Structure formats: C-alpha cells, structure tokens
Amino acid sequence: MMTDAMTSRLRPVQPGKTTLVAVLDIGSTKICCVIARLSPRPEGRALKGRTHQAEVIGFGYGPAAGVKSGVVTDIEKAEQAIRNVVGMAERAAGLTLESVLVNVTAGRLGSETFSAAVSLDGQEVEKADIFRVLKAVNARSVRPERSIIHALPIGYALDGQKGIRDPRGMVGEKLGVDVAVVSAETLAMRNLELVLHRCHLQIEALVATPYASGLATLVDDEAQLGVACIDFGGATTTVSVFNDGHMVYADAIAIGGHHLTLDIARQLSVSVADAERLKTLHGSVLPGQADEREMIAIQPVGASHDEAPGQIPRAVLTRIMRPRIEEILTAIRDRMQATGMMDVCGRRFVLTGGASEMTGLPEVARRILARNVRNGRPMGIAGLPEIAKGAAFATMAGMLVYPQVCAQEYAEPRGVRKLTGTDGYIARVGNWLRSSF
C-alpha cells in the first residue's frame, strides 16, 4: 500500500530561495557523498525543469564495503565506509550533516502504472478532487511486502479525454489519473535505513537510481519525445523510461561492470585488481583490426615479481567482455519488450554509469537494441572535482536535481508514525499540495 512508502521529510526547494542539500550515493563499488548549495537560476532554454543551479561545496569519495548489488551484506563494514566518505564531505564543506538523500538500487526495483477515477457530478475540478483521485490509486497499489519509493502522476483525464496536465478549474463528470509507482522490497530498504541510523544520519528521501540517472543526463526534448536511460553500475544495471516529460518505467538487473572484471579475472587467472586495470586500460567490446597483433602483458595470480609477465592478444580480452555486455543489453531489451516499453521509449537510448565508458559499447547497444544510442554525462552541476565529472557520477548529480522536481509526486496524508521514526510519504503531502496547487 502507499502508506508503506519509504520517502520522508523532503521539502521541495522553494522558488527564489537558496538551500543546502546533501546526497549519498551508495553503490556496490564506490560510495560518494556531496554537499551542494542550490541557488535560484533564471529560466533558460536548456534544462527548463530545473529551478536552481547546484554548486558543490563538499565532496567525499571512497570504495564501497559491505554492500553487494545495492544490498547491505555487512553492516559494520558498510557503516565504516559511509562514515569515512561522509566525514570527507563534511570537512570540505565545514558543516555537520544530519540528513541525506540516498539512492536505491536494491530490493528488486520495479514499477507499475495504476489508474483511478472519481466522479465530479459536473462540478469544477478543485484541489480536493485531485487529492481524492490520487488517494483512490491506493486501492490498486502494490503488494504489502514492497514499499513505494516514487508515486508520479503522469497524466490526468477528464471524461475520458487524456493528456491533461492540470485539470484544476475545468468542468466534467469524471476525473481520472495515471500514476507511475516505483517500489522496492521493504526489508532491503530497512537495512539501508539501519546502517544510516548507526552513522547518525536520517534519510531525508530515497531516490530510485534509474530516476536519478535520467534526471542528470537527459535533455528536455528527449524526456518529452520518449527515451530510455540505461545506467551501467558496478554490480547492477538500471533502466528508466521517460515520456512526455515524466518517468513512466524503472527496472534493475543484478549484473554490472564488476561482473566483467570477475570474468576477466577468472578466465585469465589474474587478480581482481589486475583485471580491473586490464578492463579500464585495454578493454573493448568491439573487435578492432589490430586486436590479434596487439599484445597485452598480464601477471598471473601467484606469480613472483621476478617472473616475466605473460602476454595475450587484445582480441582475447574483447572475446571475454563482449558476451557479458550482450547478456545485459539483451536482458534489458527483453524486459522492456515484455512490458511494452520499447514502444514508449521512442527511438533513443542514453547510456550512463561507470561501465558505460567502455570502448565500443554504443555500437554494440545500437545493434542489440535497434535504436539510436548516445553516451550521457551529468549536466548542470558546478564545482565538481575532476574525478566526479564522468558518467559514473550521474546518479549523484541526479539526486541534486531531485529536490527541484519532487513536488510533482503524490504523498499520503498525515497518519500514524512508523516505529522506525520515518513517516513515509506523510510529511510530504502538505508540501506537495501547497506548492502544486
């Protein structure tokens, strides 16, 4: 039910006001914390949905520990890794954090679209009617063991006429709404919440990783016409579909760039660190003409330092990496076809995430997905260190955009507080109604 929502206490940034926001990107291979100042920006041609510009004042970055495929596997290691990274960002910004926005990849992310309608009896549509129809979606929500992360109204209908963005003041007999609901397993979210409580941090909001990646890398026209954003992470690959300016679909599969590293390590009998180096420096998923002649030095596991390194043609590395990339892209294509999203996303895919920077990936994606493909990098964030300007930090950049767009989401009315101290969507409903209507 929507009352099991996990997001809490996030107030949309107010137009014309400067505010501070802290985000924590907990990945399977890296953890990143950013403290940024959101300052009002004039309306421009580019990135029209953004009311503020983000300027980074604190940045912390380190390897992940105790997390696998977005799921907490060792609470002590995860706590220590998060403390280290948050401490770096706090020292750089000169302040102490109490709450953060956190991304969610774990808990078998999934999305569904629900529809509901209420009778108007020929009266004008008022705020209360919109609230009633959104509340009616509750009756058709997801299973109780899953929690709502986002509930995004993607379109209103009046007497069967669809495509209405704001029905207030219009007259009709029946008001309907379609809501895209993104959910995840409750227990995976609770473990994430528990780790952050041990770090003395409150969760201000949970943001689905595919939603954040899309917010950071897509331009307005793409989101309007239909586009899918694929985020190749360390141990998970997520996909989001945007259409008519709204996210309408999100999904995640538990295969990512680290699986390529493990494939290389196993098949070449090298250490994981060496496999990562080979993948980064020499890896490609597209065979080249000189690959059979170009030799790469490898150091087998257990070899002593005085032994001469072995050599393999670069083509061997490509033959190891390509099947895994094809597996990921085929799985995404099949899932999107099964849900009808290949038609909704139009003719365009955007690739982002750390593993998206592999040589030849856009060409392979074009062949498998049969769509136009481009690489996406985070846009519109100032003050980032050089290390954080790549596609690997798209989720983090998207979470800085999220407070500017979260007012569009539906929230539950005030009710009984949860025992864990989070109010779900409760705290946001008043803000949503006040700021939207």
From TrEMBL:
GO terms for biological process: cell division. Transmembrane segments: none annotated. SMART domains: FtsA. One of its GO terms (molecular function) is oxidoreductase activity. It is found in: Cell membrane. Its main location: membrane. CDD domains: ASKHA_NBD_FtsA. Gene3D superfamilies: 3.30.1490.110, 3.30.420.40. Residues 21-217 form the SHS2 domain. It is a peripheral membrane protein. Keywords: Cell cycle, Cell division, Cell membrane, Membrane, Oxidoreductase. It holds the Pfam family FtsA. HAMAP family: FtsA. Belongs to the FtsA/MreB family. Cell division protein that is involved in the assembly of the Z ring. May serve as a membrane anchor for the Z ring. Self-interacts. Interacts with FtsZ. This is Cell division protein FtsA. It comes from Devosia salina.
